[in-house]
Amino acid sequence: MTQTSFSETAVQSDDRAMVIRDQLRDAIIEHRLVPGTKLSEAEVGKLFDVSRTVVRAALQSLTFEGLVRAERNRGAFVASPSPEEARQLFEARRQIEAGIARIAANQATAEAFARFDACLEEETRLLQERGPASRRAAIRASGEFHILLADVAGNPIMRRFMEELIARSSLVIALYGRTGASSCGHNEHGDIVAALRDRDAEGASRLVLTHIDHIETDLDLRSYAERPLREALLSVE
Amino acid sequence: MTQTSFSETAVQSDDRAMVIRDQLRDAIIEHRLVPGTKLSEAEVGKLFDVSRTVVRAALQSLTFEGLVRAERNRGAFVASPSPEEARQLFEARRQIEAGIARIAANQATAEAFARFDACLEEETRLLQERGPASRRAAIRASGEFHILLADVAGNPIMRRFMEELIARSSLVIALYGRTGASSCGHNEHGDIVAALRDRDAEGASRLVLTHIDHIETDLDLRSYAERPLREALLSVE
DNA sequence: ACATCACAGATTGCATACAATCTGACCGCC
DNA sequence: GGCGGTCAGATTGTATGCAATCTGTGATGT
């Protein structure tokens, strides 16, 4: 979707490890790999036909991003953010994305708006479709919008932070999402773009904040006591 | 200084790699390792008496943080942020630290203020001393203050971002720092703590912003054309 | 029947060996 | 003398082997 890949994040070395990293990352973001899933080095290595060395590098990379949890002598698992972590995540998103929106309002070029339009079209298209596959794609596209926002702001450092936050948000939605409408809301993305077009930095910032609030509201973070059980059930290898 | 170590950031596995990572990281932050220095796997491994495998993990970790630049089949080097990257870094810091200050103003406990006081005392003590060693320690202590701010805000995710930003700022100061007063200014840290004590979120946020502006002002980012030469000279192994 | 302990299987942690690649020097040629 | 190519050394990329650690099973004793 976005033409810039994740190469920003990573080393240009580690070709192979990066490919595996991105594949696993995509699978996690699209909820094909659910939280708690064990990522055995040997198994992953066999799937991608590489040695454990390369797999370890990829898993380490994902661990730094918070998408994978590594336990000593136990192995690596797809992360299962706690409700508390989820709250911290959204707090961080509010702080960072508000700033990004302000910057983007001043920086956005015509080319940027073209990308926004393409992204919005893709989103609405996917939302009209039904089925789990398009649900996944919709969550992904929703994330792409936020990353695009960071991209337009033109700060690679903040863009990388956003990538991490978005990816982890996807995990949170997988665990605590209620409707799945979390991803898009009532064309709030469109409203944000409109504010950007008006160069209304404060308006865009405010819209982003309420948008994130809406995403968070759609989560079920309250059932603190029950979660460990459900998590455990999902974690059964 | 701060009792919480960097364990937040990392995997609890990779004991040994983490130790090396932290040692290298500290050396970079304290300017004992200057930008451009080559970090040969074999050499580092010999120094710490571990195999290249462990060193690679440590270097990979530092690469993700942006403290090390890895070139395929060439090796790893202490990063040399460009002036452009430096600007982006401070832009990110303004966005993130302003938010952190607001949160910290509401969250700070008595225990937090005790830590602030200890940090400020340490800073002023180091500033009174002369010599390169205390200069290094001062830069380090200055960073610790900002991390402490993030710590008090109570959001581990933003804390981790701050750790990265502070570490990279130290690199930038090493490259472009003019006076070294970059680290502290005119007791601006103390003013920030005072605002926190007053629960003045907006005031604290504003003070943080001007503080970061002052740090950036003290840098010499203008001489774009000359830098590559100086950088190259510093990079001579 | 229950609890405890010991062992076997599996998985990760680490070191090392080999292959691929790059850098720099030397040599021949123009 | 300058330029280009080839080769040796060094360094990283990857695979694999062995040691350390953990999990779960089964036997044994109370």
From TrEMBL, chains A, B:
Gene3D superfamilies the UniProt entry points to: GntR ligand-binding domain-like, Winged helix-like DNA-binding domain superfamily/Winged helix DNA-binding domain
UniProt-recorded Gene Ontology molecular function terms: DNA binding; DNA-binding transcription factor activity
Organism lineage: Bacteria, Pseudomonadati, Pseudomonadota, Alphaproteobacteria, Hyphomicrobiales
Name of the protein in its database record: GntR family transcriptional regulator
Entry keyword annotation includes Transcription: yes
Claim: Transcription is one of the keywords in the record: yes
Keywords (A to Z) from UniProt: DNA-binding, Transcription, Transcription regulation
Top-level taxon of origin: Bacteria
Pfam families membership: FCD, GntR
HTH gntR-type domain mapped to chain residues: 14-81
PROSITE patterns: HTH_GNTR
